[in-house]
Amino acid sequence: MSGYAFSREPKTVPLVATPHRLIQTRIPVPGTRAILERLEACESRSMQGQLPLVWDRAEDFSVYDSAGNRWIDFTSTIFVANVGHSNAHVTAAMKATLDRPLYSCYAYANETRAHYLEKLVAFAGRPFEKAFLLSAGTEATEAALKLMRMHGQKSGKRRRGIVCIENNWHGRTLGAQMMSSNLAQKAWIGYQDADIHHIPFPYPWALDGRSGEDFLAEGLKQLEAAGIDLARDVCGFMLETFQGWGAVFYPDDFVQGIERLCRRHGILLAFDEMQAGFARTGRAFGFQHYGVEPDLICCGKGMGGGVPLSGVLGRAEVMDLPEVGNMSSTHSANPLVCAAGLAVIEEIESRNLIAETERKGRLLFDALRDLQSRFPGRIANLLGRGLIAAVLIHDPKTGKPDGPFTSRVAERCMQKGLLVVHTGRESIKIGPPLTISDAALLEGVAVLGEAIAEVAAE
Ligand SMILES: Cc1ncc(COP(=O)(O)O)c(C=O)c1O
User: Fold this and answer.
1) On the chain, which terminus has fewer CB atoms closer than 10 Å, C or N?
2) What pLDDT, on a 0 to 100 scale, did the predictor assign at position 328?
3) Is 84 a residue whose pLDDT tops 90?
């Protein structure tokens, strides 16, 4: 985190009234502080850190507070509302389940579950044959870790090595944090699993003229120097499809090189598709940009359209490794979330959201490139694909990342009726619902430009 504290003092800001935004009170709206303090009194502080905005309702690409102020949402509640907030088809599917009535049935069979899993596997396509469902993203990455190790043991690997990428992130539970490389966040564990390894991430600014494949070769040399033999010791590679904070994709040949190693040595290749899945990048799943075929994908966020739904997909041979009962959870495949998940895929298909996202992504990046040409020293990099973008903000004097300035830009956007993802570092992340209109998308980018100009002028 940048250490920047958002002001809770209602501030008089200019009136905004456009077809997509309405700011008609002081911001934060009076009363916000009282609600935040009530939460602070009874909830762990680990939930804090976001912009001081109390959500009252959210529809499609708009978020409203109780005073009727309306924001263009560039967050999708962190890439959850891919099919739009409170999507009518998803709502109707859940209402029908509640009216049946059926809230939960644990692991007992239920027809909606059968329908959803058939649809999910068909949507994911080759080589995915089976899935199992969970609730949180971190459970899905943990489950992939378990499957990779089980597969490794079955194939006689001496050790249980999983190779991950530095600075990638996979969730907040034990295994997920071991696979992530945020040292401060996993200090609580007190030790690092000796069989989880990290190789450097090929940031565009780190490549230094090298190809992705050469960069990978250097990372592999580090493993070799540490005595790790891929053929003997490694059972899995776990890749975040793009690195989250900055929407940083890998060079294709880096990922293709990993896939070749996996095939050569009987290693499973898993992608953490939490942010990248369900049409977000203009493909059904983000790994499809690299021209590779993973063995496992871990999904969550946009999969449920706003309800807690996550899952792992893979080939039957891998998915059936756990014994009966060894891989499920009380709320796995709950009928309510299966109905929602099914409606999400139907929405993606019937509204052509994959192709639409690719088209809108081109609009977004054209507009962002214009913005970059207006602030060449400030906007150091534009990263992302489809409707996931990161604007990396530097200090033009030092050329270094400028987290505090970026937080102020996020706060100014809020005062102007635009909600962006505050990452706590030098990136403004943009990930609107995929249903956003072209006009609202472009209006949002224009507001971001105004915010950068105003903060820079102060
Ligand atoms: C790439 C990635 N993996 C895993 C997770 C963990 O998902 P959850 O918060 O649902 O446990 C997240 C959440 O932000 C994520 O972005």
Assistant:
1) C
2) 87
3) yes
Q: What fold is seen in the domain 16-83+353-457? A: Aspartate Aminotransferase, domain 1 (3.90.1150)
- CATH domain 88-350 topology: Aspartate Aminotransferase; domain 2 (3.40.640)
Q: Output the CA torsion 45→422→439→342 (10° steps).
A: -60
pLDDT of residue 182: 82
* Cβ-contact 427, 397 below 8 angstroms: no
Handedness of CA 244, 248, 252, 256 (dihedral sign): negative
Domain ranges, ordered by start, for the chain: 16-83+353-457, 88-350
Residue 308, ligand 1, Cβ within 6 A: no
- Ligand 1 pocket check for 171: Cβ under 6 Å: yes
| β strands within 36-80, DSSP E | 57-59, 62-64, 70-73
For 131, the 3-state DSSP assignment is strand
Q: Give CA separation, 452 vs 79, 220, 374, 417, in Å.
A: 23, 41, 10, 14
> Does residue 252 register a pLDDT over 60?
yes
Paired tokens of 268:
């499973």
E strand or H helix at 223, and its extent? helix 212-225
Q: Is the CB of 137 under 6 A from ligand 1?
A: yes
62 beta partners? 59, 72
Nearest to 297 by CA among 123, 175, 177, 152: 123
What is the arithmetic mean of pLDDT over 366-386? 97
Q: Which residue has the tokens 């871990």?
A: 298
Rounded to an integer, what distance in angstroms lies between the CA atom of residue 197 and that of residue 152?
Answer: 15
Amino acid at 320: D
What letter does residue 108 receive in the DSSP assignment?
S
C-alpha of residue 269 to centroid of ligand 1, in Å: 18
**Do 299 and 370 touch, CB atoms closer than 8 A?**
no
CA of 176 to the centre of ligand 1 (A): 9
Strand partners, 305: 307
